[in-house]
UniProtKB/TrEMBL annotation:
Signal peptide: none annotated. SUPFAM superfamilies: L30e-like. The keyword Ribonucleoprotein applies. Keywords: Ribonucleoprotein, Ribosomal protein. GO terms for cellular component: ribonucleoprotein complex; ribosome. Belongs to the eukaryotic ribosomal protein eL8 family. The keyword Ribonucleoprotein applies. This is 50S ribosomal protein L7ae-like protein.
Length: 83
C-alpha cells in the first residue's frame, strides 16, 4: 500500500501549500492526494503534477494520509521530497 512509501520517506511535505511549493521547485518525486479531500483544493496540485511529470498517487482518506505522515490531523496532500 502506498501509505508505506509515505511512512518510509525521509523527507515529506504535508499540505497543499507545501506540496505545491515542492512540485514547483522540482523537488517532489511523488505526490499523494486523499480521495476525500476537497477537489477545489487538490485540482491545482494534480494538474501541476501532470504538467511537470510528477507521479500522483491517490489514497483513501485524509485521516489515513495524515497518520502516515505522522500528524494527528488529516492531510489533503503530501509529497515525497528529494533534497
Amino acid at each position: 500500500m502506498s501509505y508505506d512509501k509515505v511512512k518510509q520517506a525521509e523527507n515529506i511535505s504535508i499540505g497543499t501549500k507545501q506540496t505545491t511549493k515542492m512540485v514547483e521547485l522540482g523537488k517532489a518525486s511523488e505526490v499523494f492526494v486523499a480521495e476525500d479531500a476537497d477537489p477545489r483544493m487538490t485540482a491545482k496540485i494534480v494538474n501541476l503534477c501532470k504538467k511537470l511529470g510528477v507521479q500522483v498517487t491517490y489514497v483513501e482518506s485524509m485521516k489515513q494520509l495524515g497518520k502516515a505522515c505522522g500528524i494527528e490531523v488529516g492531510a489533503a496532500t503530501a509529497a515525497i521530497v528529494n533534497e
